[in-house]
Amino acid sequence: MARIIVVTSGKGGVGKTTTAAALAMGLAEKGHRTVVIDFDVGLRNLDLIMGCERRVVYDFVNVIQGEARLKQTLIKDKRNDNLFILPASQTRDKEALTKEGVGKVLDDLSGDFDFIICDSPAGIEIGATMAMYYADDAFVVTNPEVSSVRDSDRMIGILSSKSRRAEEDREPIREYLLLTRYSPERVQRGEMLSVEDVQDILSLNLIGVIPESQAVLNASNSGVPVIMDNESTAGQAYSDVVARYLGEQLPHRFLDIEKKGLLGRLFGG
Amino acid sequence: MAMGLLNYFKSKKSTNSASVARERLQILVAHDRAGRDAPSYLPQLQRDILKVLRKYVAVEPGAVNVNVEHDEHHEILELNIVLPEGERKTG
Questions:
Q1: Phi/psi of residue B21, each to 5°?
Q2: pLDDT at position A131, please?
Q3: Does the model's pTM come out above 0.90?
Q4: CB pairs below 8 Å between A and B: how many?
Q5: Starting from the edge strand earliest in sequence, which strands make up the sheet with A75-76, in order?
Q6: Which of A132, A143, A191, B49 is spaced 20 to 30 Å from A9 by Cα?
Q7: Among residues A196, A193, A232, which one has the least CA distance to residue A216?
Q8: Neighbours of A27 (CB within 10 A)
Q9: What are phi and psi of A27, to 5 degrees?
């Protein structure tokens, strides 16, 4: 039985797909058979971030509608044998995602994989609710910014009331807060909500803080999940997130400003 | 060097919009949650109470306010009715 993880946020542009890609690659690197599904039907972005956009033949909706078999639709990652991608359809609309159809695909995948990661679209409409309905765990991706925090809180409400676990009265979805695009400099200047502020408001278990980093754009430019960039702070922070998710106790890093010497401060950095 | 120095002093002047953001969010999120967690019968209850009340007092349609508050141990159903001016004397 695979564990189903949804990466969600409500608000767009906060780093859901970056996170889904990093998480998927990170779990695969740890030896877990992992599949990552793009629920953003109509737009499709995960394949680009994963760097497999030219290998898409069939998609999620084709499988749901019985036009393609799951095995021929899954794209095997070229860098890691444990990792597979199920791309979204670009041509259909979100209505093609039915509860039964999605449930059947997840059920079929569940036997072959350890982890199924659902990359949710922005918003609270059908694509997003389908992505979270079957989840066991949820990563709520949040930027330290008012509209993102508010939307995350709405998602938390939906997760606790509109999921299969809620409907069947089972143990609720485990929710984790992932704070992204964090800038310790701006927090110190009083321009940005701090980790503590966001945690206070959302009262969620903090799984990680990803610092604002140029490596994220570089990674998406080249179709390499940023977690593979071991040199970058964002890559290292994502590696910590994966380790924490798998049960390791690690302190949070990159929350403070890197100490600069007097010269560095004088000349600006 | 001059720019570096300038930036150094500029950064000392804190704008602290973050604390404004925090306060706004705390209020907003509490309000959102109250609406979300409210029992679904609340609007109907509000209409019914208003209907009964209007048999006796000529209150405004918006005069009845029903709210549910949660704390750790109980839920409180809060009922707020604004009587029209002048009712006090006759009542």
A1: -60, -45
A2: 96
A3: no
A4: 60
A5: A75-76, A83-86, A34-38, A115-119, A3-8, A137-142, A174-182, A205-211
A6: A191
A7: A232
A8: 26
A9: -70, -40
A198 → chain B, closest CA residue? B22
Contacts of B1 (CB under 8 A, 6+ apart): A266, A267
- Residue A154 at interface with chain B, using a CB cutoff of 8 Å: yes
Nearest CA in chain A to B37: A157
Cβ pair A162, A132 in contact under 8 A? yes
DSSP code, position A74: P
Separation in Å, CA A233 to CA A42, A99, A240: 32, 38, 11
The residue with tokens 């994220």 is A216
Cα separation of A38 and B40, whole Å?
Answer: 34
Range of weakest confidence among A22-36, A81-95, A172-186, B24-38: B24-38
Work out whether strand A3-8 and strand A115-119 pair parallel, antiparallel, or are unpaired. Answer: parallel
Cα separation, B58 vs B77, whole angstroms: 24
Find chain B residues with C-beta within 8 A of A197's C-beta.
Answer: 18, 21-22
Can you tell me whether residue A119 is helix, strand or coil? strand
- pLDDT of residue B5 exceeding 70, the answer is no
Say if the Cβ atoms of A190 and B14 lie within 8 Å. Answer: yes
Question: Contact at 8 Å (CB) between A89 and A101?
Answer: no
Partner A contacted by B16 (CB < 8 A): yes
Task: Give every CB contact of residue B83 below 8 A, 6+ residues apart in sequence.
Answer: B57, B59, B63, B91
**Gap between the Cα atoms of A103 and A105, Å rounded:** 6
Q: How many helices (H) and strands (E) does chain A have?
A: 13, 8
The three-class DSSP label of residue B61 is: coil
Chain centroid, CA A176 distance in Å: 11
Which residues in B32-59 are b (16+ Cβ under 10 Å) and which e? Answer: eeeeeeeeeeeeeebeebbeeeeeeeeb
Using the CB atoms, write b or e for A39-49: b if 16+ within 10 Å.
bbbbebbbbbb
ipTM over 0.85: no
CA atoms of A110 and A193, how far apart (whole Å): 39
| Residue A93: both structure tokens together | 């609309």
